[in-house]
Target: Histone deacetylase 8
Amino acid sequence: MDDAGAACGRGKQMEVFWHEGMVEHDTGNGVFDTGMDPGFLEVLEKHPENSDRVRNIVSILKRGPISPYISWNLGRPALIPELLSFHTPEYVNELVEADKEGGKMLCAGTFLNPGSWDAALLAAGTALSAMKHLLDGHGKVAYALVRPPGHHAQPSRADGYCFLNNAGLAVQLALDSGCKKVAVIDIDVHYGNGTAEGFYRSNKVLTISLHMNHGTWGPSHPQSGSVDELGEGEGYGYNLNIPLPNGTGDKGYVYAFNELVVPSIQKFGPDIIVLAAGQDSSAFDPNGRQCLTLEGYREIGRIVHVLATRHSDGRLLIVQEGGYQVTYSAYCLHATLEGVLNLPMPLLSDPIAYYPEDDSFPVKVIEAIKKNYQKDKVPLWRDS
Ligand SMILES: [Zn+2]
Model:
């Protein structure tokens, strides 16, 4: 950021990193995310991971009531060597070649089309810039507003609309810059398998993922997201999966945070926290079966704010992941950031009604996970 930018940003509480070029990733139309036209429908829908999502997020952050708290920073493309801190050279080469050849379907629903690779590089570079901003001490809270999303992208393969692991690259940058411990909290409705895989053998990165219990979904996603996937070697006990029953809403998520996420972060003591924020855990998402509303996202944001204040000197990087209902996702993100900024009053009311929540089953599941952590070999929980 230049001096003028720094002056403009003074007094603002959140830095957003964004680049318009990310809308150029065109995922096409078809039956939901298949890219296929069965030939008998009059109206084909946009692929759920389309640019309308981020256009509405940009819009609500610029025109919504949170706008005075935000300053804007221009993202930038990642350089190929930067990608190798998380991804294998063979995989990066596969993506470069796919782009040169005019595109490729890398796995189900995941289309690298003309323009996609440049957008993916922008998403990765923008997440790196946002992290660097925090590491250089220029701010405490940054939000990388990026697409394509990243948390399913593993070191050597694409998965679930993701090519490059934006959050994973940012975490690795923090470690390479001298941070000893980084915690990732992933609230996207799907298992953050790519980020988990990248740090599966490391005790320097605590990856926590709250997701619906979707299991594996084919060769690109062999991980199950179950409680047993705890990490390996030195990393054993540093990947905590919290699969929540379908229909878990605000109360269930807050309970899971208070009972599992908060104590784990307390025991781990990270130098920096990364929140992988997906809004597909909302009540209206076509890609998820959970029931979070603005209130729940706001409360999660507030809990993460408290965790960052207590444990990481306030340093928090938020990285955009999924979220496919183009109206509600923008509102949910706005509410999450309200919570993260610990603003005293809700700035936005929920524009649409929500489904009722039955929190009795999620509470049982969360209690069972907690017992498992306590009696099992999760190092962080051993003495509790
Ligand atoms: Zn997702």
Remarks:
- Residues 18-34+42-349+360-381 form a domain with the Arginase; Chain A fold (CATH 3.40.800.20).
